[in-house]
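Before relying on records like the one below, remember that each one covers exactly one chain. Contacts with other chains, cofactors or solvent are not represented anywhere in the record.
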Amino acid sequence: MYRYDEFDERFVRERVAQFSDQVARRLDGSLTEDEFKPLRLKNGVYLQLHAYMLRIAIPYGTLSSRQLRQLALIGERFDRGYGHFTTRTNLQFNWPKLRDVPEILGLLADVEMHCIQTSGNCIRNVTADHFAGIARDEIEDPRPTAELIRQWSSQHPEFSYLPRKFKIAVTGAEQDRAVIKAHDIGLRIRRHPDTHESCYEVSVGGGLGRTPMIGKVVRDYLPKADLLAYLEAIMRVYNLEGRRDNKYKARVKILVHETGLAEFTRRVEAEFAALDGPSINADPEEVARIAAYFAPPTFRALPETSSALETARAGNPDFDRWVEVNTTAHKQPGYAAVTISLKTVGEAPGDATSEQMRLVADLAEEFSSSEIRVTHAQNLVLPHVKLSDLFAIWRRLGETGLASANIGLITDIIACPGLDYCALATARSIPIAQAIARRFAEDARQQEIGALNIKISGCINACGHHHVGHIGILGLEKRGIESYQITLGGDATQDAAIGEILGPGLAAEEVPDAIERIVAVYLEQRQAGESFIENVRRLGLAPFKAAFLELDRAA
């Protein structure tokens, strides 16, 4: 893991002191809420429906055991004993008191964490593949790139007041697990076909929200050494030409769409050519220094399989199923990555109690080189686990309700906090996710259905990524009543796609029945080995829409 240097440490401590003074002036009335708002947003503090919310940055989704224990402590001491992991791999505390925020920021600084650039019109927390450095399909670990971007973008003087927020994601694998095409900038490390050197495919103009769009490639093979200058060129074009007259059209995706890909690319390339690249791009020694922090841990030389694991699987069907669903092959023989589901049926997706956070921290320290990853699907990962340790981990996870075997299945639902917390939301998300999970809770049924991603947002801002869900659910307010719009066919992988609307909005109590009907069409008409999303692509929307409209007529 990357560790702060002296500059990082000083920078964060100075920000804590600065914001502590600003909070004190707000509490004594020296600052009005209007004056305080831009200051608190720069430090990750939102004013939600019922209380302040504090959003903590987890760069490229990587945590240490020490950091996760500190988050557990903060949740216990200053919140209501839990935290919420988000689709940006951040952690949100929903109930802190404003007077306590400076102390919380100090505790975060003690473990090299902060809340800077988790809100506001700036470059937000950079995300990456949660299996970085692990996956067998990986060309190169994307975390050094993500850390380089973090350092370049943090408080960048030219990009602190952008037309709107800006999000970047990086992957280094064949399979896209970082949703790069739904980002303002998506970077994919790939091999140049001629030189075989690693380089970047650069996509620009992705994003969800009010106007969902899939990112478009502006450079197929960008030399790695030119990364920061090329990002600078993109940001300058956006900062100069982005629509500041209308906040709904102020995203780079609108600029790319209105300008046209060819012309936008031309402007970026012209800006890139005019820049003094050597003064912007990272020194190779600095790149090497950063990369050294992401060297793999010391692995034991182990066989590909474990007799202890196979014996435990043979004697325990529940454990066998968990291994099948919640573990991923590691590039190192004898090891696996364990995905811990934060989607226990009946619970709020992405929530983890302080007790659960401490357990995961303990397991990471004992079994996974003290490292934890946060996924954009709101789950946690132990990245480096010996196969022979899986049974012990599973048993201990079960003690705190974290042993659900549902990763990638119908109950592994992404959901934003919705109207239960968020001041921007127009409908609830959490109760809808809970109702669907209860409907499909039976393990055998989830197995029968197979891979199916449901994503739920409580407003048009799409924090729940509903546009790229195999089944997407968008909650809206319609004449004072919550109404839920269903979309079908979205995809968050390398085959990224925006889902299409099936029909009229539904009442909250009708949503589980609608999902039931959609799933029934799939089960009736699927071919051997065909997944849900493959079935939707083959059949088109017509049969699903017919079943959906039958529900509407019955209502």
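The chain has 19 helices and 20 strands.
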